[in-house]
Amino acid sequence: MQAETKENGLRSFFLVAAQHRFFTEPSPKAGNCDPSAHSRARSAAVTGVMDPARVSQLKHFVDMCKSNPSVLADPSLSFFRDYLESLGANLPPSAYGPGGSKSKDHVVEESDEDMADTEAAAPKVEEEEEDEIIESDIEIEGEIVEPDNDPPQKMGDPSIEVTEENRDASQSAKAQAMEALSEGNLEKAVEQLTEAITLNPTSAIMYATRATVYIKMKKPNAAIRDANAALEINPDSAKGYKSRGMARAMLGQWEEAAKDLHVASKLDYDEEISAVLKKVEPNAHRIEEHRRKYDRLRKEREERKLERERQRRRAEAQAAYEKAKKQEQSSSSRKPSGMPGGFPGGMPGGFPGGMPGGFPGSTPGGMPGGFPGSTPGGMPGNVDFSKILNDPDLMTAFKDPEIMAALQDVMKNPANLAKHQANPKVAPIIAKMMSKFAGPQ
């Protein structure tokens, strides 16, 4: 008696498993259904074999839906559309009739409550508007002069060949310039030095000497041009660095002046350089400290800005995660329960009330009573199928094509059960099902 109960229960379970894959397995070619289809279907449920006529009708209907999806727009087939959508199917617009949009029942809209929760979950990062950094004035000691904007003074032609006569004449002009300088005649001194440079444009000392005269005349730009010319001829010209450093100090270029004067002091130290450095260096240090201070403030300000940006991005990412999580939970709570891959809530009595008009090619009246012989909840027999449907191993087995093929083979002919018990993949599933269908001891 127990063996018979197991066999009947197992047949019923195979039928349920086959129905779980009903829409994905190939079916026989559609044929005409005679008036005795309903009684044969009832008998098929008892024996555990699906009525081929019903399968053929269903296949015919599916083929018709493929060729003309607008058939699904019939309000009486809304339950079938709902079933397909519950499987994740994307139906064409014509399946929804005029307007071609998904039914409101299956459009998941975000409620005001969801929006409120999302806004509450998103931490707000305050955007601090920092004031622009305004640099303070630097207390500078020492006088500066207005830059001279005279046309550039005459320079020598470095490409000419300097003869001995030219060198002698150049030295003579320089001597006259020194004499004019001692007399305080700066203009004449510049004229004589310009003649000396023209006669011997390769002499760095001539340019450096004229630069010192321009410093006395408070023409720092002219002095810098001569000092640069001297350093081009002789990069180790102490007088060139000295005159350029003093000229830059006159223009308030304290840091550059300090660098030039330090180089001049290393090349040829004198008291005048030391005296000028004592005035220049304090200002150069104040400028350097001032620059470091505001460089640091700008860097800190930029780091705070970057940190706020990082916090904002983290907050947005967290809010997006919380929103997606809540939507997923909300979507899961809205999904209808039922047999995986089957009609929501099972198939009570099969297709409810039959399909008015029937499948094409069927007898008038459609399929009265839907799938035959099933008990309320869509499952045949008197076994507690909730334990089966909640078994993760069995639900995973439904997704395995090899196992499903074996189940269908046994469903067609229960005598084939023995040959599948040797399959290490199928045998454990069959054993587990047999144990669940076992009668009371």
Automatic annotation (TrEMBL):
Annotated coiled-coil positions are none
User: What residue spans carry the Basic and acidic residues bias annotation?
Assistant: 302-328
Q: Where is the composition biased (Low complexity)?
A: 329-338
STI1 domain: from which residue to which, for each copy?
391-430
**Annotated spans, Disordered:** 91-131, 302-375
Q: Which Pfam families match?
A: HipN, STI1-HOP_DP, TPR_8
- Keyword Repeat on this protein? yes
- Quote the cellular component terms of the Gene Ontology held in the record: histone deacetylase complex
The annotated regions of Gly residues compositional bias extend over 339-375
Each TPR repeat occupies one of these ranges, namely 170-203, 204-237
What PROSITE patterns does UniProt report for this protein, alphabetically?
TPR
Q: Which InterPro entries match?
A: Hip_N, STI1/HOP_DP, STI1_HS-bd, TPR-like_helical_dom_sf, TPR_rpt
A Gene Ontology molecular function term of the record:
Hsp70 protein binding
Q: Which UniProt keywords apply?
A: Repeat, TPR repeat
The protein in question is named FAM10 family protein At4g22670
- Specify the species: Punica granatum
Instruction: Recite the lineage of the species.
Output: Eukaryota, Viridiplantae, Streptophyta, Embryophyta, Tracheophyta
